[in-house]
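PROTEIN FOLDING TASK:
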Amino acid sequence: MRPISVHVEEEDYRSLKGLAERSGKPVAELIREAMAEYLTRRGGSGSILDIAPHSSGPLLQPWSRTDLFDEMLEP
């Protein structure tokens, strides 16, 4: 593991310390878990097709993969 320094608001740190005490884990472990979850969700690994669609109402017409890629790559 590589050590890093992170500056956080005092109130956030107090909240993390409380959560750490309740969970029986060190604050550093909670931060590592949060970072890993963030990277899993937003880190860019995987495919865009793995992202759950946002519900924005009924679908007006079906989209194929080709349609989706064409729309994304259109200049």
Observations:
- The chain has a mean pLDDT of 84.
- Helices lie at 10-23, 27-42, 65-73.
- The domain at 1-45 is CATH 1.10.1220 (Arc Repressor Mutant).
